[in-house]
Amino acid sequence: MPFCTNCGHELAVSAAFCPNCGTSVTQKVTSSPAPSFVVAPSVPVATESVVYSIDVEEPNVRGSKYLLVFTDRRIVAAFESGGLTRLATAGVGRMAYDDAKMQHMKGKTIDELLSDNRSFFIPYNEIHVIEFEAVVKKVMLLTINYILLKVNRTAGSQQEFMIPRTKPEKLEEIERYLRPVFREKLIVRK
């Protein structure tokens, strides 16, 4: 059984990230037990709970569909290999979906969603600002509505996502769920 070399936590063989500290295990794995000087925490590690989720795409990247899951400590971008879904229920680290196309994701934990090498996460302590902006574009006779999501990281990098075919009113729902999590880091442009 592999162990995380950052914190010594025992890992599942298929884990891409340590469930205890979030370290990428593709680079930091040892097959021997943790060194004897690593002390296990005396209190159990808190479970991760889901606050909000939404289906997104990367702008100008065909086939880049993700389920963004906002937990109480990070944003998880789970790559979706099928059609887009909507989160129906959320428990502590478990999710259920109402779309038959996504049955393969039903009941997966956050760690299982992250096991796809195209999935990733952004810890909240690495986020400088998170911005949602309603965009309405007129293309000939069509009106295209979407929400642009920008995650500006403290290291200076930026990740952009697009919430397609979304009315600007969706911003009120997003703000209602995410304002308590991000507080002043959340910018909503209507």
Structure, explained:
This protein has 190 residues and is mainly β. It has two domains: 1-35; 50-189, Roll (PH-domain like). Helix content is 9%, strand content 38%. The protein contains two helices and twelve strands, in the order E-E-E-E-E-E-E-H-E-E-E-E-H-E. The strands form four sheets. A four-stranded antiparallel sheet has the order 3-4-5-8, with helices on one face. Strands 11-10-9-12 form a four-stranded mixed sheet, with helices on one face. Strand 10 and strand 11 form a beta hairpin. It starts with a strand and ends with a strand.
Helix-strand makeup class: mainly beta
CATH topology of the largest domain: PH-domain like
CATH superfamily of the largest domain: Pleckstrin-homology domain (PH domain)/Phosphotyrosine-binding domain (PTB)
Order of helices and strands: EEEEEEEHEEEEHE
What's the β-strand tally? 12
The order of strands across the largest sheet is 3-4-5-8
Approximate shape: globular
Q: Estimate what percentage of residues fall within beta strands.
A: 35-45%
Summarize model confidence as the mean pLDDT: 74
**Architecture of the largest domain in CATH?**
Roll
First-to-last CA distance: 50 Å
Query: How many structural units, i.e. domains?
Result: 2
Describe the main β-sheet briefly.
4 strands, antiparallel
Number of helices: 2
Q: Evaluate the radius of gyration.
A: 18 Å
